[in-house]
Design brief:
The protein is an alpha+beta fold and 69 residues long. The chain is built from two helices and seven strands. The chain has a five-stranded mixed β-sheet with strand order 1-7-6-3-4, with no helix packed on it. Strands 2-5 form a two-stranded antiparallel sheet.
């Protein structure tokens, strides 16, 4: 079951979302996982740490899904 994360801005950067959703503990951990290709955005591997995630986007890490609203 995907967790829904509500943001109050137009977008959130991918590394910040991973921390905000508690999928990682630190920004450094987020950066490493993104660079290693472990993060999926809308079903595709994303290696851009600053990727803008907008409402409706789905982010996946280690089988955990987050949907941004």
């Amino acid at each position: 079951m995907a967790e829904k994360i509500k943001i109050s801005t137009e977008f959130i950067k991918l590394d910040a979302l991973l921390k905000f959703a508690s999928l990682v503990g630190t920004g450094g951990e987020a950066k490493q996982l993104i660079q290693d290709g472990a993060v999926l955005v809308n079903g595709e591997v994303c290696t851009m740490r600053g990727k803008k995630i907008r409402p409706g986007d789905k982010v996946e890490l280690d089988g955990q899904e987050v949907i941004v609203e």
